[in-house]
Design goal:
By secondary structure, the chain is mainly alpha-helical. It has one domain: Helicase, Ruva Protein, domain 3. The chain contains three helices and no strands. The longest helix has about 40 residues. The radius of gyration is 23 Å and the shape is rod-shaped. The termini are far apart.
Length: about 90
């Protein structure tokens, strides 16, 4: 579906207002993906943000786990005895 002129500008403005912090290109892409349905486009953007957030959180958790595990292994190499994981914190 193609939308032009004032209708396009109106839908874009409504979506930008509905979804704080969204870029114009992000909004246009979401509108195109949803057939220029503003409500569906807003849900689309919010869902994409949630997925990105969860991916970033998962990656952060993996990095933290690696850093904590690596730190624990280095302590073990140098003969530091730990009675519990919380002992050195």
């Amino acid at each position: 579906m193609s939308v032009s002129g004032e209708l396009r500008a109106d839908k874009l403005a409504r979506l930008l207002q509905a979804v704080g912090g969204a870029t114009e290109s992000e909004c246009v892409a979401a509108l195109q993906a949803t057939g220029w349905d503003v409500q569906a486009a807003a849900k689309h953007i919010k869902l994409e943000r949630l997925v990105r957030y969860r991916q970033n959180s998962f990656i952060t958790a993996i990095i933290c786990d690696f850093l904590l595990t690596g730190s624990f292994l280095r302590r073990a190499q140098f003969g530091v005895k730990l009675t519990s994981p919380e002992a050195n914190f």
